[in-house]
Design a protein that fits this description.
12 strands, alpha/beta, two-stranded antiparallel sheet, 9 helices, homohexamer
């Protein structure tokens, strides 16, 4: 349930080293490092491909067809933040375009994650301001109803608390709670540590069946080979 | 983000009078009484029509295609509870059927709200055990992976904390945080207080335009009548 | 493209005998009688089964999450009308409930067809006020933005002009332009004239293949039987 | 890949005792008895609730918006059959209505399972002819293009071979290959044998955790209880 | 409701200067300039990114799985036109490919907007013939049933009258009625006039809150800041 | 219905010349050459554009959220194969990423077609390993339940038998049964033989109406031109 009409100005952002460092591992590795949780629904897609980013969440709750609070959240952005926008009911209107992106970028925001639509995607691409959204739509919005800024929100099925770390790339968007950002960074690093070696072995023709010693558990589970 | 593999045995349930009393007002009125927030997504539908119920939430987090934790949550049910089940990714399998319903009913559960599928709907209807779900499906599930019980979960887009009040009927499902259950009950009662009088006036032919004094604000907004 | 902020008070309703008479044939027959056009998209479903109704359209254009204009349209209803509500973008909020239904019913409306959500469905069912909608949702709406009344609208993919005849039942909703309401009534009657005889022959075991003389065209099209 | 323009007149139907006997167990139990396979996608829903039926499949392949082959398949129906209709691309038109149902019923068909739309649902309900479909739609169809009858088809994601057993109820539709119909009947019977006792124990308050001896494997998997 | 089997040869196209000039403003600005109406549903997506185009609509009504009328409409194309194709029921088949595109391009068409599927997207991209569609699908179509050309059609939820101006880009597709094309061009130009200055101010760090003087209305609406 | 827990090691692959040769014609032409059948549902999309490929199918059946069998199928891959993965219920998790792709590529696989999700799409793009999938998702999977390898599977609505030819490009994915691969290659070649000439004529301004001699059948069907 949401508290409406409030802006929290002081939020505790996750450790900066962790918030910055998680970008290099990408959403899939980070999601695994947390035990396969934290992922926003896969309908959240980047407006252009090839970006891999992380940062601290500032959150905003919107009403359908109303982008007033995006102007309010702009003031709360600090360099290194990613804005996470939720909506009180399903809506695909274009809440966000190039003017807001200019403002967000000027404040130091790295990206927007919005559980609704955005527009001006060609200009956003040229500006290099990445957005993960549910839809692209030219449909404009009004400025009439109060939502809130920096309250915990549910965005694309995931609870995001202000200050959490957001990791986003072509595979999707993950939310890492601030309290476990550092340990998640270490777990992600550990996961990747021997990926290069694994990749080399697989590339040389070694099978995962052998590399991961799966033949015995498969046989135990009853797998039969038929010639 | 979810904590996995834990069962919280002691949760603070909302005030019982409020938890029981909200049923009479139904999801639409309760949702209005909270300021139009708290509603689960409208894809959550009852398996049979005509039930209006409320109770305190015990929560369970499931993995796709795995209903093991529904047996674990059964033990945590107290009379007057409603089980709220979330899933770590989208899934429509039939996690819940007549045997689990028998067990839940024996423990005193009033209903199940599940962001996934259920089955045995004919028997559930005969038993009078109401379920709100995303799908009906005969697809069975396995019992292999740990989720959690009584952690905060996101169910159909809404954050549900154990002990919150759930109100469900043919219009949908609303979650009322325990902390505001009592004031929401009062607000709902106040909303309904003069509904009978309003209904009588509208039934007699009085227009909402006049009863709610809308003509002036409509004119101010620029509405033009053309003959 | 829509004209906003206007209410047309004088619309030309279709011939009353045709508008009333089409109900008896139902949406499937009427749709066939018009040459298989005029049907709203099949996502429009009745909130309860078993109603078959027709009437003249009064139209209303709504904004997402805003039901203000439903109060404005109420005044334009005449006995025998069916209200047809379109929305400027996709929305499933519950724009319509028991109080508005009381008012619509008092004005003589026979039904509501709304390309969005409605609520209070249990009460609407008890009142016997039928609604065809895209969704059921407890989500309330605000009263802030002007739409229009009695302009041509696109509802569930179909153009509806004020005064057209709407035919709705468990199979869906059809729009019959006022100008062809009478000839459509006659065509529908003609289609049904020998349905009883056809049904009796089919019930006796005669095959459609023979009754409709399909064997020759099927053979000509190249159908082969293999024993 | 489909062979077009052919009608196979001689198909090998599954053992009649098995085909008839499976109805009593319902789709969920039969699906479990086969090892959790065989289920059509859950978007296949009955047009009215409360029917539980089984029978042997006669199959038909349709083109979008064209129901010609439903007349062809009618001749191939034998008492105890269920017609299974697939479509070469996604389509929700109303391919099937009361006249075809009269013919199918006269031939002894028990039901229709169609991966598309049907119409005249009120009359079908009155006639007691059950249909599981993807949609209800008044949209009519033409009779112009050849499909096939009694070839293997993919219906709602499942391969159905003519003569297989279809089991359908409120939970969905299952296809049982003719070759394993008898053993599936026995497996289903075995599953149900001690359901009554299980239900009684659960109703008396015994927990599934104890009845199924889950406490040890849950502990071994690492489940922690927190007071 | 649609008139079937007709081709209107003489349509009144919108003023050429307006039809050509609107391209430079793009769908979002034009949609705003009309008062936030006129937008086709956001499921209409370009087959390749980066095109911004406008032109006068020639319309065509298709039946599902049948592209016969696309050959008929080709003859009615004049240089500067955009073909707008609607379908009598939902269908994602590939109605349009490289041969038709070659013909449309030879006639001077600038684009196709189709509420269904298209194919040969790689070749269309190489040819530089832009298409906005609901789907991409290799599924071919037949040539069997008459639709119509240059009648008003509903395409992706919007009424398009022959001769209207279509504006399409990466954000979506807008329809501007011919009668207001000129004033919409002026309104769009006015909207853009001071965008450069606004962008410069936002880029310098000025907040929208101050630039648009939102602080007072936000406070009046009750927004509270919490430290 | 699926046989579970088996791996067929010896499958009969389609004629290599046909399997290799079909790539050049693409999915749309091959689908037409087979009589407009064989196409997987259009929700199957490539993770990057511009690839046109064909090869022989090795198949794998997966359970939702479980990618164990993808390691098993890797061993069965021969150079020139395309892996076709089906799932027992709907699931969008990311079953496949860069490590499996490295292994598949080392074994000589040309592509993956998966009726579920994949991840690491940026790396897959860099590696040049094409995937057609229903979704992109960072959601990881477990390795717990047996499916099967090289049994006939239904993938995106189409039956694929091991050894069939798969043709995939930006328009979609087609399955050509091994038995008709050669004749389909010839039919596709014949279809393309005079495409160049047709394209040249259309580019010169000749209308399809004349080139395909459609004017007479259109007139016979009743098409009327109105000036």
């Amino acid at each position: 349930m949401y508290e409406l009409g409030v802006v929290y100005r002081n939020i505790k952002r996750a450790d900066k080293a962790a918030a910055d460092g998680l970008a290099q591992y990408g959403s899939a590795t980070v999601h695994e490092a947390m035990g396969r949780v934290g992922l926003l629904k896969p309908y959240m897609r980047p407006i252009y491909a090839g970006v891999q980013v992380s940062g601290t969440a500032v959150t905003v709750l919107l009403h359908p067809g109303d982008n007033w609070m995006l102007h309010v959240v702009a003031e709360q952005i600090q360099p290194g933040d990613i804005v996470v926008a939720a909506c009180t009911s399903e809506n695909t209107d274009g809440f966000f375009g190039d003017l807001l992106a200019t403002s967000f970028q000027a404040r130091g925001a790295r990206a927007l994650v919005i559980d609704a639509g955005c527009r001006d995607v060609r200009t956003l691409t040229e500006m290099g301001f990445p957005v993960w959204s549910k839809a692209v739509s030219a449909k404009g919005t009004v400025k009439a109803t109060l939502g809130s800024v920096n309250i915990p929100v549910v965005c694309a099925g995931m609870l995001v608390t202000p200050g959490d770390v957001i990791v986003a790339d072509d595979d999707g968007v993950v939310c890492v709670p601030a309290a476990i950002a550092h340990e998640t960074l270490e777990a992600a690093a550990a996961r990747e540590a021997n990926e290069g070696e694994k990749r080399a072995r697989l590339a040389s023709g070694v099978l995962g069946l052998d590399m991961y010693k799966m033949r015995e558990p498969l046989a135990k589970a009853g797998l039969r080979y038929i010639d």
